[in-house]
Amino acid sequence: MAEKTVVKGFKIEPKQLRIYGLVGSVVGIYLAYILNSVTGTNIFSFVGALAALFGVVMGANAVRRVCAYGIGTGVPSIGMLSLGMGTVAVLFGLNIAEQLGVGLLGVILALVYSLIFGYVVGLIANRVMGFNIPIMEEGLTDLSGAGTLAILGWCFAISGSLAYADIVKDVFNTGFLAIIFICGGLAILHPFNANLGPDEKQDRTLVNGVMVGGMSTIATGICALMTLGLAAGMVQIVVGFAIWYYFYVWYFRLAKRDASAVVGTGLLPPSAL
After folding, report:
1. Coil, strand, or helix at residue 273?
2. What is the pTM of this model?
3. Is 113 in contact with 93 (CB distance < 8 Å)?
């Protein structure tokens, strides 16, 4: 039997993690916009993908908190719900901001709308549908905000813009939204699904989320090859691969830390027809 691996873990309070998620994503998205504007290039669009990871971690933590009450198959559903609410919020916020002549405030308007939207959906889930989960309203508010910020970050990574027309042209009309939706949903819902059980721990679950978020960044980088060009797309793919590899190794160590035993099983037997 292999020797137990000692890996230092971490634990972050939900309120603190919410602040990190909201501030990190919003600042990251605007930083990406500023860097592109100052340099006159689209090479820094990958920073939008990094900003999305803050939302992913916030969302993955919200999933583990709500789904710890035992909603079972609702784990995938709540992850997809967060991206669905996020998609609506992004379209609403960016569109309204442009109509009001304050396009750069689209990120803030989308986020505010998404938080209200999530809270209302949480109220309906608890008081109409009867889930009776004490933190449902709080959890769905977090999830809606997280989904919105993740989509906004990845939309910027593909389009290099915060303009409603550009995002619709490069992300929605091309069908790349489907890639963002599935990859983003996996990054938010999969971590708890992969680690659920009596030994589920926050650090292992959230590290898994960033790992899958790195894979999502690779996917948006491939999309960016067709919308932003070779340089911007390749930078994003390389950054995404580096994130995925680093957090994959970290996750593997955490899995070994929490496993009751790590043994070699040899080759798998041939499958029977």
Report:
1. coil
2. 0.89
3. yes
